[in-house]
Amino acid sequence: MGYRTAFPQPRASSVGDGILLGALVWLGFGATFKAAQVTFERRPWAVWGIQAIHDLVAEVVVAAIVTLWR
Asked: Whole-model pTM?
């Protein structure tokens, strides 16, 4: 079993795929990291909401640009 078979690479072939992939990356990394940070710093969850929306929009825009660039 080769590396490519064991770990398939996500490929975005359309802008919609890029947006979905960006949102999933944000959910897996950005949202969880910010939640841990807000919890540790004992900040209000409204701060998490503001930062989460900003990070989600940035991640989706970057994913769409990279998808179109290819």
From this structure: 0.74
Which amino acid, 43? Answer: R
CB atoms within 10 A of CB 15: 13
- In the numeric block, which tokens belong to residue 36? 């841990």
CA distance linking residue 13 with residue 60, whole number of Å: 15
> Model confidence at 5, in pLDDT bands (50, 70, 90)?
low
Task: Give the span between the Cα atoms of 66 and 48, in whole angstroms.
Answer: 26
DSSP code per residue over the chain: --HHHHSPPP---SHHHHHHHHHHHIIIIIIHHHHHHHHHHT--HHHHHHHHHHHHHHHHHHHHHHHHH-
Write down the domain spans for the chain.
23-70
